[in-house]
Amino acid sequence: SVIGDQGRHEEAERRYRELVETRHRISGPDHPRTRSSLRGHGLELMALGRYDEANEQLTLALDRERRLQGEEHTDTLSYERSLARLRIAAGRFDEALEILERNGLLRHQAR
Question: For the chain, which end, N or C, has fewer CB atoms within 10 Å of the first or last residue's CB respectively?
Answer without folding.
Answer: C
